[in-house]
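ok trying this again, last paste got cut off
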Amino acid sequence: MPVQAMGPTYAGGAQPITEGGYDVLYLPDVNNEALQQAGESPVFYYVPNRVRMARKDGPDTGDFLFNLVRFAGTGGESVIGSPGEVAGGVLTFSVTGALPEDVRRQTEAQIIAQNTGKRDAFWGIRGGPRPPIFRPVIISESTTTVSNVAPTTRGLPTAVTATRGGREVTTFDAFGMPGRRAGARPMPSARSLRATRDDVVPAGPPSPVATDGAPVLTEGSGSNLDPWYWHMQGQGTGSVDPTGTHGFSGLIGAYPAAICWEAFHGTASPLVVIQNYRMKVWSPVVTLKITGDWDRISESFKSAASGRFLWVSADIKAEVNKMRINGTITVDIKVDTTLPGAEEIARRLDEKSDLVYEKFMDAAKSIIFEPPRQEAEPAEASSSAGGALSPWGAGFSFNYRRDETHLNLEYNETRQFAYLQDHTISNSLTGMYDEMKADPDAARKYFVSVYLDDWPRRLARVVRPVCAWDDGTVDFMSVQVGYPSTTGDVQWDGHAFSADEGGDGSWKYQTTQKVESDVTNKPEGWTSDLTFIKRKVHLAEPPSEASDPYRRVQIQRNVVDLDPEPSGTLLNDTTVEVRADSAGRLSVGPIELGVVLTDNTQKVEAIFEAVDDATGEPAGLGQVRFGWDQSDYDTDRIWTAFTGDPAFRPFYRYKVQVTVKGTLFEPGRSWEGPWVRASGNGPLVVEVPRPDAPGVVTRYVPDARVTRLLEAGPASSGSGTEPVASAAPEVPELVPAGAGARSAPVANGHRTYHDYTV
């Protein structure tokens, strides 16, 4: 039967090699001596001796497979689904034990150089026709863990009250700390780093903890993430390929995020990745003899328990070593004396391998230890946290059976043993600092800050009416807000404001702000922060002039569009006003006279007209008139006009006509002032001109002057008036009002009035 490579062995020892910053451990095949005697190639196995951060394009090229996203947000109504103030991070990275190809070739060359011609049953290379073969170690089980940056329930003393047999008992945590009885003041929370009044909480059930030890997120905390939160995914069973890549992803609170952010920007890392391999290795043909007294072994474990319910591999190994020292257990390993250095091989197997431990556990499992019972009582279940310390996630409990076996441990066998050897490697995730120092922009590839207020955001508009509802000129106002769909169609929502809502009434519009690239056929000029606004002022029917002599309302259009059709105005303002003034509103009032009327023969009339602010020409709304007499001269007047033009500015003009009534025997008097320009909304005092003021047009002539005019002959206007008497002396102070001045004869005893300008 041809000789075959069987597997690596620790009998010949291990050879670690460091090359190019990479650490690798080599082991020889247990049959290397026989393989070379048969003319076959010797076989050597390699396993990583340090875990490293993986890269995208191989173990030594490309960017690191690392990313730390630090996020924060104040939340509020602006962020959809926000629970309030929150901060933390998301950490992702991958580790590997793979070697760069050039490093692997260099380390293999070193193994060949160190062992060629060497007289060693396992490492010696005779230089036969076939070169050595290098293979990765066979991994039967792998577990990967990451150190915890945040405190855990095992990081500070905690305890849980348990009930056994109907009574309360004291329990212990993973470190053997005494617990508390029900109703006693609890110890500080595991997340508390300093004693405060908040740490002293009423007795009650412990804080909820998930099955994996991570704190459960609860409502009502004001945040959805505890500042010390730490929960890493990817821990546990790993790849059986020592050169494979293992990924981790974790949600972390604000404090671990800050620690990791600063640490990874520097030369040190707060994270340590630990990989525990269980390698299948072989021994040469050896005689293994283990003897001991089970009573003494059991008592030794019981005395070391100190309240412990579960034991893990490291604890048992330590106790076995103590019992070997004090003679409770004796171990004898003999190696085939035909092998060179047989005594040294036996020593290595005894000190550097798990062979003795494996064989001891094979016997002890059925007598001293047993797997944890599924029906474990609460106290035991709570203490099972200690089992989590095992790299394999399992532990052994004492066998408390009353029918104790009084036997001696006897194990004696001679053969080639295969057993599982623990091999633990670890490393802090360093290495990025040098790259970021050489290229400052490289940090942007690995570290990102995300502000949760940015997306998904509520795009909100608060629309408020601004209107003097009391004057009754505005019936209601309306607003429509539009935002595009993903197909570019504008979707509208609207609201109407009435006097019932008062001046404090407002309406809120909300939608989800889209990413512009998600919208096809975007409306012209639109960006994701803009909404379309269409505002309208709906005016009431104005009262007739006869119904209210003190108020005049002019409306050019009943519905005034404040924003252009068809899509309105694009705005990014959060607060939007619908103002009645924007409808080209002119509001003059209260209007009062600047004189006092002393008797009921005096009447004053004012004519108002809106004008263009640039040209002074009438704006096309027509004229309005107000009259005053002695009975109501102290009553204010109001003039309101809506042009419908948002660009309209409140410019207007007015002129005053004064009439003093005559009697059957006394002539009346009348005069009219010139146009007076004014601007602005608000109160107005009407200036009443005197009859002899510049620009005033009179509409009466005193008797003495009439006589003189008649004596002077017909009026210069050529009106054909017949003289009443002979010509009179010239009247230089009187000038005809103009070419169009009216003139009429005095006939049948009636007086004719002429228009003259003083």
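PB: full thing came through this time. The longest strand covers residues 272-293.
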